[in-house]
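Sequence, structure tokens reproduced for absentees:
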Amino acid sequence: MNKRNPPPSGLFPPLRRIMALVLRHLYLMRGSWPRLLELLYWPTVQMVLWGFITLFFLGHSSWVAQAAGVLISAVLLWDVLFRGQLGVSLIFMEEMWSRNLGHLFVSPLRPVELVCGLLAMSLIRTTIGVGGAALIAIPLFSYSIFDLGLPLLAFFANLIIMGWSIGLVVSGIVLRYGLGAESLAWISIFAVQPISGVYYPIDVLPGWLQVVAFALPSSHVFEGMRAVLFENVFRMDLLINALALNVVYLGGGVIAFLAFFNNARHRGQLLNVGE
């Protein structure tokens, strides 16, 4: 027997190596609550969303036929909210992935200026992405969301501001807890989708959940969208409610991000951006 190359111990070395890899990721999962949350999150959100859609269409089978393009409008406006949030979160995380935060903040750049830059990039990315999709929908489906007219600008502005607010909070959490929490950039926004009334009116929800829904700017926007499409009425009350809520949301998002940033700076985490 060659003493320099002794046979591997144990009966099943490949199995041991596989189990070692599995154990490594189990330990990683155990120490990262965002990973555990993500495992439960997607099945639950999909079940709740499609459950409410099913309940609505059971009693309103002719609803879509009453307003051509209502679902296309809902999808495009939802993407404004989603892309607005993702634009802030991803741009910030790209700085973390490239380990560039330390370089940024040895420059004269201030945290508030970083926030403004993130919001500007989110606006550019969202306009390009959603605008392109809206143009493609015209020849494919003979429907233009631009037919909504001036209300479309109000819907767009309110949804992207709400997306910014969520994106800033997510960015702050990722900065504070490390890249192990980066999955929040994708899952956080979908938590509000079932209660935003994207594809169905808010009155489909249980009474207690309607109270929660109307605390979101997005629910007022999508209710306003349906009022324009079904009734040809622009509801100023819904617009005012959405604007008022967005002032609170955006202010809270900026404050939360700056608080997380200051905490990370004091802990020396601007240079240590691992998990």
